[in-house]
Amino acid sequence: MINAKKTALVLVTILSALPAIAEEAAAVAAHPAAGGGHHMNFTFLGLAALGAGLAIGLAAFGAASGQGKAAASALEGIARNPSASGNMFLPLILSLVFMEALGILAFLIAFFLKDQIGQVIATAFGAH
Questions:
Q1: DSSP, residue by residue, 86-118
Q2: CA 20/CA 89 separation, integer angstroms
Q3: How far apart are CA 93 and CA 91, in angstroms?
Q4: Which domains, ranges and CATH numbers included, belong to the chain?
Q5: In the 8-state DSSP scheme, what is residue 82?
Q6: Is the pTM of this model over 0.90?
Q7: Residues 7-52: pLDDT tens digits?
Q8: Spatial contact of 77 and 84, defined as CB atoms under 8 Å apart
Q9: Contact between residue 25 and residue 46 where contact means Cβ atoms under 8 Å apart
Q10: 24 near 36, Cβ under 8 Å?
C-alpha cells in the first residue's frame, strides 16, 4: 500500500508540472523577440526537457538507492561478524564511489545540456 501511495505522489507531482511547461512554451511562442521566431514544436521541446529531467532524477534515485542498500548490507554483515569489518571496508567504499560517480555523471550531463536542448532537437530534426 505504501508503494502505491508513493507512486501516486510521484505521478501527481509530474502531471502538475506539465501546465507550467506548456505556459512557458506558449509565452515564448507568442513573443518572437523572446525566441519564438522559429518553427520548432514547443510541446515537443517541453516534453524533451521533462524527459531529460526525469532521466536525471532516476539516475540520482538509482545511485541513492544503491548506496543505501550497499550500506545496509555492509552494516548487517559487520553486525553478524564484527571481525570481517576490515575485509568489507574497501569493497564497500569502492562500490559507494562507483555509485556516486554515476550520479555525478548524470548531473554533469544535465548541467552541460541544460541550455543546449533546443539546439540538439533542432539539429536532430532539421528545424531552422
A1: HHHHHHHHHHHHHHHHHHHHHHHHHHHHTTTHH
A2: 46
A3: 6
A4: 2-125 (1.20.20.10)
A5: G
A6: no
A7: 877 777 777 766 666 665 555 555 555 544 455 556 666 776 777 7
A8: yes
A9: yes
A10: no
